Amino acid sequence: MTAGRTPPDPQLRRKLTPLQFEVTQHEATEPPFRNEFWNHTQHGIYVDVVSGEPLFSSLDKFDSKTGWPSFTRPLVLENVVQREDRRLWMSRTEARSKRADSHLGHVFDDGPQPTGQRYCINSAALRFVSAEQLEEEGFGQFRAAFEAAGVLPLRGQSGAPSGGGSAAKPSEPSSQMSSQTPAPTSAPTSAPTPTQTSRTASAQRATATLAGGCFWGVEQLFRELPGVLDTQVGYTGGHTQNPTYEQVCRGDTGHAEALQIVFDPARVSFAEIVQYFFRLHDPTTLNRQHNDVGPQYRSAIFFHDDEQRKIAEGVRTEVDRSGAWKRPVVTQIAPASRFWVAEAYHQDYLVKNPNGYNCHFLRD
C-alpha cells in the first residue's frame, strides 16, 4: 500500500472482487493476456471501478502487444495522477485515479505518436461503459467525440453509425478530450494463449538466464513482467549432459533449476530484470529456497556477456547494501553455459496447474 495512504474502506471488499481489491488497493498486477480488456475492441469509455470517475476512451486504446489494456492518454487528464513508484528498486511512473486514489497501472514512454506514451492499465481497475450507454450512465459529455469518429450517429439522425462502429478516429477531438490527435486502435482478431505470444515477435531480443529455486514459480512471475517475450524452464550450470528432472533432483549434476528469458531491451532492461529477480526469491539462503533444499535450488545469475556480468554484480551489491535482507546475499554470478530445456510438463506449469506448488511471491 502507498505510504501514508488512508486504509481502504472495509465496504470495498464487499463491493469489489478479490482481484479488483488487490489491484486498486494493494497495487497488485493482474496476469497479461488473461484479463477482461486487454483485447477489448468495443467503443466506449473506461471508468474507475471504485469511484466511477472517467479515465480512458476506446478512441485512445491501442494494441501494445503486452497483454494489458493500453492507452495513449487519459480521457480526462486531471483524473489520472502520476506518482513515482520505486517498489522494484527502480523508478517507474505509477498511474492512480484522482478521486478514489485507486492504483491503475503504470505509464511508459514507449507508446505510439503523437503522445509517445503508453498507459499500461489493469483491467481489474476499470469498468467499461459502451458508447451507446454514455448518456444513460451520466457521461453524455463524451458522446460528441464518438459521433465525430463515426461510432455514433449525430444527434437527431437515425441509422447505424458509419463503419459499423469501428470508423477512423476524428481529426479534431471534442473539447472534453485531450487536444492531441488519438492514436489508431489496432486490436488483434483473436486472443493468443499465454504460451503463444511468442510471445509476439519483437525487433529487439535479448536473453537472460536466472536460477532462484523451483523454476515453476520463477517462470510464473517473470511471465507477468512487461517486456518479457518468452520463457523456458530448464537446467544449466552443471556437468551432466541431457539431464532429466529426476537426475537434477538428486543434486549431483551441478545443474540448477533455471529460467531462460527472452526480452525486449527497449521495454525492459537487463538491470530491471535482475532487480525484479531479487524481489521474487530469497538470495541469502545457500542452496535453498524455503522447503526446497539442494544445489539445484541455488540463487544464480548466468551472464551472456561482460555487460550483463557488470550489471548483475552492480545490482547484487546494491541489494546487499540496501538492508532489504538481514543476511548477506549469496547469489552466484557465473558465465552462461548450455541450457538444457526441461521436460514439456514443466513448461508453463502454473498456467496449466494454477493450484500447483509455488513458494515464490513478489516482495515490496
Structure, explained:
- The structure is a single chain.
- α6 (270-279) packs parallel to α7.
- The strands form four sheets. This protein has a six-stranded antiparallel β-sheet with strand order 3-4-8-7-6-5.
- Helix content is 18%, strand content 22%.
- A hairpin with a 7-residue loop joins β3 (61-62) and β4 (70-71).
- The radius of gyration is 23 Å and the shape is elongated.
- The chain starts with 10 loop residues before the first helix and ends in a 12-residue tail after the last helix.
- The chain has 364 residues and is of the alpha+beta class.
- The protein has helices spanning 11-15, 18-26, 143-148, 215-223, 245-250, 270-279, 306-322, 349-352; strands at residues 44-48, 54-57, 61-62, 70-71, 80-85, 92-97, 103-108, 118-121, 126-130, 206-212, 228-236, 256-263, 288-289, 292-293, 299-303, 332-335, 340-341.
